[in-house]
Amino acid sequence: MIRVIAVDLDETLLAPDKSIPAENKAALQLAQERGIRVVIATARGWGRTEAFYKELELQTPVIVSSGSRVVDGRTGEDLWMHRMPMDFARDVCAFCDEQDISIRVYVGQEVWNNRDTDPLLNAPVAEDRIVRNMAAKLPEAPYQIYTKGERNVALLRERFGKQGDGFLLNITKYADGIPEVMILNPLGTKGEALRALCEQWGVPREQVMAAGDNFNDLSMIEWAGFGVAMGWAVPEVRACADYVTTPDNQAGVAEAIYYLLEDRQEPSAS
Fold first, then answer.
1. DSSP H or E stretch at residue 179
2. Domains assigned to the chain
């Protein structure tokens, strides 16, 4: 029996045009009607997730920023955050200024930029979001620092390594093939956030499904009792999943849910 379904957004629940396919939406609605909690678990911040939460008419907490922040979706208030060490965050901000690396820094409920162009959206930044000499102005330790691009990611990895005391460089690629990095507290993972929520609800991992496609989904797919990989997922995610959806099926989330609700009568795709 599945009591919780955690689902990634981009390239999992969402179609390439960033809409929710009707089949996926219907399957999640059916799951909720059967008493299953549905949890969004995404690398996006809350601001870029809220519309999907409302479209699905959810009432559950939302795992955002790859697990470093959990939000009460009904109010937008933070339930918890995992921040990185302040001294480390200042070092990263100073290094990025020195190397002309454009970054997004997630501070409380705000997003700060150190340059005029946003590295995620590749668009001009509103003047009130640009913070010069950010290392000296951080009011508290951020929970995420983000940038994108071969040069930027390579410089950060060379300078700081992939993991250290209180921080983790979560490096991945999406459909455009351009590497990006989210710098997080090591506890800021989707798997840890999902585990903590299920512990509060008294739901064991055996009664949890988690679906995703990329490296930042690995922790929750490995932890969940029933891990689902999209048919186009990176090989490492497909290898650890209990079920792999049909390749090129944009309604892969629906496929996996119906498979579960019908008592797993069909074999996993390979």
1. strand 179-184
2. 4-78+188-261 (3.40.50.1000), 86-184 (3.30.1240.10)
Is the distance from CB of 245 to CB of 18 less than 8 angstroms?
Answer: no
Q: Report the half-sphere exposure of 114 (CA within 13 A, side-chain side).
A: 26
pLDDT (tens digit per residue) in 144-178: 999 999 999 999 999 999 889 999 998 988 878 89
Residue 84 DSSP symbol? P
What does 92-127 look like in DSSP terms, one character per residue?
Answer: HHHHHHHTT---EEEETTEEEESSSB-TTT-SBPPG
Q: Which amino acid does the sequence have at 251?
A: A
Tokens of 225: 């009792």
CA distance 26 to 32: 10
Return d(Cα 49, Cα 203) in angstroms, integer.
25
Tokens describing residue 154 = 């390579």
Residue 75 has which token pair? 């109010």
DSSP annotation of 130 reads B
Helix (H, G, I), strand (E, B) or coil at 55: helix
Least confident of 22-36, 134-148, 163-177: 163-177
pTM: 0.88
